[in-house]
Design goal:
By secondary structure, the protein is mainly beta. It has 6 helices and 20 strands.
């Protein structure tokens, strides 16, 4: 199932996306749900919209946090000049950094080097703490596509990554959340990033140093995860610079494609 958050001019709503039978670029319709399926039981309202008249929004606005994982692919750690970490290297992005598909990534004035980082992300579906490995599947609501936009110059000069990772618009998510895959399935999917149509990243999530199960176990051991919290699982090698006017797209096989354009503030 594909769960989208969308608007047709009124308040945002959640809906079930139904893909076009002909395999077209966009699904045909989105069927409206009552309430928020991440945190409550919902039903179909009977209202259905063609997707080309609906505006897709970020599929989730985390209630409390986005947890990022740094250097979770050995080749990416190497290209950044670092050793691969022995345990997950974590950071937080504020929920105010989240935007949806086709929303602009704003290039801030103080930044001189902006970078894309295409990633697989998972969405937590229930309150949880100290989750054992065998129960990780139970607490994941689904999966989405992320771009961990980073001010690389600030990342180098600051002692921590709050500014480099936390600007408004630095966490595009979308186009929707898929809920039908298992942890095992998402442990081997291709992640591809293009800039203006040119491929920059193309690797499998199987290359993660710390997999989905390990990440949820490790993170939930020190912080309570809430419904709607998002975990960014790290980026493969091939990160690079974004400039105003660039269109960046991240595709995760089995989920979809997230596209955003960079603009000056």
């Amino acid at each position: 199932m594909r769960i989208a958050r969308f608007s047709t001019g009124g308040d945002p709503a959640f809906g079930i996306v139904e893909l076009a039978a002909d395999g077209g670029k966009y699904p045909d319709t989105v069927s409206t749900l009552t309430g928020d399926p991440i945190s409550m039981p919902v039903q179909l309202t009977g209202e259905r919209h063609e997707l080309d008249v609906a505006r897709l929004l970020a599929p989730v606005i985390p209630r409390s946090k986005v947890v990022g994982v740094g250097r979770n692919y050995a080749a990416h750690a190497a290209e950044m000049g670092h050793e691969a970490p022995a345990s997950p290297l974590l950071f937080f992005k504020p929920n105010t950094s989240v935007i949806g598909p086709e929303e602009p990534i704003i290039y801030p004035d103080p930044v001189s080097e902006l970078a894309y980082e295409g990633e697989l992300a998972l969405v937590i579906g229930r309150i949880c703490r100290d989750i054992p490995a065998e129960r990780v599947d139970e607490v994941i609501f689904g999966y989405t596509v992320a771009n961990d936009v980073t001010a690389r110059d600030l990342q180098r000069t600051d002692d921590q990554w709050a500014r480099a990772k936390g600007y408004d618009t630095f966490c595009p998510l979308g186009p929707w959340i898929t809920t039908h895959q298992s942890v095992e399935e998402m442990g081997d999917v291709m992640i591809t990033t293009t800039v203006d149509g040119q491929q920059r990243q193309h690797d499998s999530s199987s290359l993660m140093l710390h997999g989905i199960v390990e990440l949820v176990v490790y993170i939930s051991a020190f912080t309570t995860l809430l419904p709607g919290d998002v975990i960014l699982t790290g980026t493969p090698a091939g990160v690079g610079e974004l400039l105003p006017g660039h269109e960046v797209s991240v595709t995760v096989d089995g989920i979809g494609t997230l596209t955003n354009t960079v603009i000056r503030k």
